[in-house]
Amino acid sequence: MKKTILSIFIAAFAVTAYAQESIWADHLDISPIINEDCSATFRIKAPEAENVILVGDLAKEGNITLEKGEDGIWSWSSAPLETGIYSYLFVVDGVRTIDPDNTYVLRDVRSEFNFFIVERPGEKCPFVSGDVPHGDLAFRWYDCEGTGNERRLTVYTPAEYRKDKGRRFPVLYLLHGMGGDEEAWISLGRAVQILDNMIASGKAEPMIVVMPNGDPAWDAAPGNGDNGNHKPSFQGPCGDEKAFIDSFGEIVSFIDSNYRTIRKSSGRAIAGLSAGGGQTMRISKKFNRTFDYVGLFSASVKDFDGGEGFAEQFGEDPELYFIAIGKDDFLYQENVSLRKFLDEKGYRYEYMETEGGHTWANWRNYLTVFIGKIF
Amino acid sequence: MKKTILSIFIAAFAVTAYAQESIWADHLDISPIINEDCSATFRIKAPEAENVILVGDLAKEGNITLEKGEDGIWSWSSAPLETGIYSYLFVVDGVRTIDPDNTYVLRDVRSEFNFFIVERPGEKCPFVSGDVPHGDLAFRWYDCEGTGNERRLTVYTPAEYRKDKGRRFPVLYLLHGMGGDEEAWISLGRAVQILDNMIASGKAEPMIVVMPNGDPAWDAAPGNGDNGNHKPSFQGPCGDEKAFIDSFGEIVSFIDSNYRTIRKSSGRAIAGLSAGGGQTMRISKKFNRTFDYVGLFSASVKDFDGGEGFAEQFGEDPELYFIAIGKDDFLYQENVSLRKFLDEKGYRYEYMETEGGHTWANWRNYLTVFIGKIF
Questions:
Q1: Distance between CA atoms of A268 and A82, rounded to whole angstroms?
Q2: A120-130: string of b/e by CB count within 10 Å (b at 16+)?
Q3: How many other CB atoms sit within 10 Å of the CB of residue A64?
Q4: Cα–Cα–Cα angle for A356, A358, A362, nearest 5°?
Q5: Cα(B66)–Cα(B89) distance, rounded to whole angstroms?
Q6: Where are the alpha helices (DSSP H) in chain B?
Q7: Whose CA, among A336, A348, B41, B197, lies 20 to 30 Å from B185?
Q8: Between chain A and chain B, how many beta carbons pairs sit less than 8 Å apart?
Q9: How many CB atoms sit inside 10 A of residue A242's CB?
Q10: All residues at 6 or more sequence positions from A295 whose CB lies less than 8 Å from its CB, including other chains
Q11: A348-362 burial code (b ≥16 CB/10 A, e <16)
């Protein structure tokens, strides 16, 4: 039997020559190991290496060097960890390497890294939704006249949507940042799990969440429409960002005509992170009777269009204008300026300031807080 | 500006200490480079390495050793390549490493590898669907009484489905192999692109494709319902495979009540690869008036249940009973035995024998041929 399994493995991979030795035989059982005290033990087999470093969430104070064992396996154990989600990768003799024994890999812009989850006894990680009703996910294409192409977007519908087919639901439009795409919020942002949990616990209304691709230079995340030439970068959103913003009404129309939505401003929210926060500011001004709830997460709001358009938007106060940012965020000062402007004009907003900077840890947090306040 | 971009990058990754040097600054522009003659040049920066090997589709005759340049970048160029999709990864001093400069990464069971696409001038790769109408994709949960949990499945709906809302469509149920899940056919199998292209060129009927998770030990692909403890393996399908097979009618009911389907056997096909081919054989016997079209791709059909159930299934010949396998497949002999049995009984089937073995290259090919024959 073992031989059969091995044969399948070798053939399925089509990396025949090296497969047996490096891919199958070398697989450690589980990595990292979460110990009983919730510490994590990292291991990588690299008998020839001179130096192995761990980078990521646990290495914020500096690089962590693993220790080499006699079996050629390098290892390091952390202190006991809090419930949460953690990122990491190895650097083996200067070469970035994802953990070959960890199934869980994410891409951020152009780079892959591993993640793992810790759940302390009796606690539940808000980014895991194993035991609550699951929402569904769709990747859909819509014709966008404004940008002149078919574009891909992601739609989350809550479990209630498929269970109660007579009911209509409010919609949150949720935008990614530079170098991101329509998959960023569901992979890096754990939006599905956050929504599933918040809705199941009654802390958020069941809602549809629409995550468009906000970079007009591309129609979709890498690997979908393209032929391998998509190299995401921090230069984006490239292309004609104005075309994306000006045509945002097309997305709202597409969703309203394909889903059981509440088709008025009290049933619509929009939020975005970083560049997507800037887009949120602009879109919510341009379509100023479309969204009653607006969220700016670590938003890029440089000079905020000289204040143009705010008078119309705040003429009839939005139900919620929410601004969140971390103290160490490099966009902090831009947000100070925006708030100063809003204060001077007497435009009402809600402000949340956290520790940390321009990170997914903060954006997951802001999303959690924001969806608890809307609808 | 450059400094700002860099700051975003460092913060977003939360791999602060090492990020600047190893992740951002070290990114080569594009990898691999597809040259004008359609050869591919592979590069990886590893100044301290002693040995760098390329494995994958181009290294079938043995490992390929890269050459070290004075800049610490190892490189190797292939001969001109045919139009197609290619897999690879590096082994740096014995450690498996995905290409840190290639955005395109896939997981097969527990291991990640890179891929790239070649399109020769004037040719179109059948696994790229950039210029044809795109089908939509949904990940949905259904209540499965047979296995006692909510389970996730993937649904492809063709572009025609969203454009013609009065029309009903046939359904192909498409099953994965051992260690796979509901995402295997869309990632490794390029099913979306194959369907988009075949439908756009009129070579296949517009159809819905349903890709369930056929491993009852799990409810979904890693990272969805679980808390990080899902370690796919070639031991699967583990759990109660019989429960999955016996309850397959629940999937058909779920699809028929949620999509505009053609609700009779002439509007249904089922196919699967390897272990999923064995499931296909069993499901199409058990539900023997449900599917008019059956496809066994490199199917695991050991002792084919001693022949039980075939008489009922072939009592009224299926429109198509399609068996495909590669000459080098380790399951070849099992399929010889099955065909001998079918021949002796006079049960009609169609047979396709190809070069190669138990590979996704073959399964993508078999799917392409099969969908051209059904509905």
A1: 35
A2: eeeebbbbbbb
A3: 18
A4: 60
A5: 12
A6: 2-13, 16-18, 159-163, 184-187, 191-200, 241-246, 248-258, 275-286, 310-315, 332-345, 360-371
A7: B41
A8: 280
A9: 11
A10: A269, A270, A271, A272, A277, A280, A320, A322, A324, A366, A370
A11: ebeebebebbbbbbb
Phi-psi sector, A93: left (phi>0), alpha (psi -120 to 50), beta: left
For tokens 């003659």, what's the residue? B37
The one-letter amino acid at B103: T
Residue A67's SS3 state is strand
Q: How many residues does chain A have?
A: 375
Q: Which residues in A lie closer than 8 A to residue B199 (C-beta atoms)?
A: none
- CA B155, chain centre distance (Å): 14
- ipTM rounded to 2 decimals: 0.91
Residues contacting A164, CB < 8 A, separation 6+: none
**CA closest to A197 among chain B residues:** B225
Whether A116 and B329 lie within 8 Å, measured CB to CB: no
Indicate yes or no: CB of A227 within 8 angstroms of CB of B128.
Answer: yes
| Cβ within 8 Å of residue A131, ≥6 positions away | none
- The β-bridge relationship of strands A84-92 and B40-45 is unpaired
Half-sphere exposure of A42 (CA within 13 A, CB side): 27
Rama region for A262: left / alpha / beta (φ>0; ψ in -120 to 50; rest): beta
Residues of A41-53 as b/e, b for ≥16 C-beta within 10 angstroms?
Answer: ebbbbbeebeebb
Q: How far is B54 from chain A (nearest CA, A)?
A: 9
- Whether the CB-CB separation of B249 and B272 falls below 8 Å is answered with no
Reduce the DSSP state of residue B219 to 3 states and report it. Answer: coil
Digit-by-digit pLDDT tens for chain B (375 residues) are 333 443 334 334 333 333 333 333 356 678 899 999 999 999 999 999 999 999 998 988 888 999 999 999 999 999 999 999 999 999 999 998 999 889 899 988 888 999 999 999 999 999 999 889 999 999 999 999 988 889 999 999 999 999 999 999 999 999 999 989 999 999 999 999 999 999 999 999 999 999 999 988 889 999 898 888 888 877 655 667 899 999 999 999 999 999 999 999 999 999 999 999 999 999 999 999 999 999 999 999 998 989 999 999 999 889 999 999 999 999 999 999 999 999 999 999 999 999 999 999 999 999 999 999 999
Write the CB contacts of B158 (distance below 8 Å, at least 6 apart in sequence): B133, B135, B169, B195, B196, B199, B206, B207, B208
Can you say whether residue A355 is alpha, beta or left, with left for phi > 0 and alpha for psi between -120 and 50 degrees? beta
Please name which of A318, A330, A317 lies closest in space to residue A362, comparing C-alpha atoms: A330
User: Does A192 contact B60 at a Cβ distance shorter than 8 Å?
Assistant: no
* CB spacing of A105 vs B112 below 8 angstroms: yes
**A25 exposed, middle or buried (CB, 10 Å; 0-12, 13-18, 19+)?**
exposed
Residue A153 three-state SS: strand
Interchain proximity B330–A223, CB inside 8 Å: no
Q: Do A14 and B125 touch (CB under 8 A)?
A: no
Burial environment of residue A210 by CB neighbours within 10 A (0 to 12, 13 to 18, 19 or more) = buried
Distance CA A73, CA A11 (A): 27
CB A173 within 8 A of CB A208: no
Buried b (16+ CB within 10 A) or exposed e, A66-92: bebeeeebbbbbbeebebbbbbbbbbb
Which one-letter DSSP state was computed for residue B308? T
Task: In whole angstroms, give the CA distance from residue B155 to residue B136.
Answer: 8
Residues β-bridged to residue B273: B297
Q: Which residues of A touch B14 (CB under 8 A)?
A: 56-57, 60, 87, 359-361
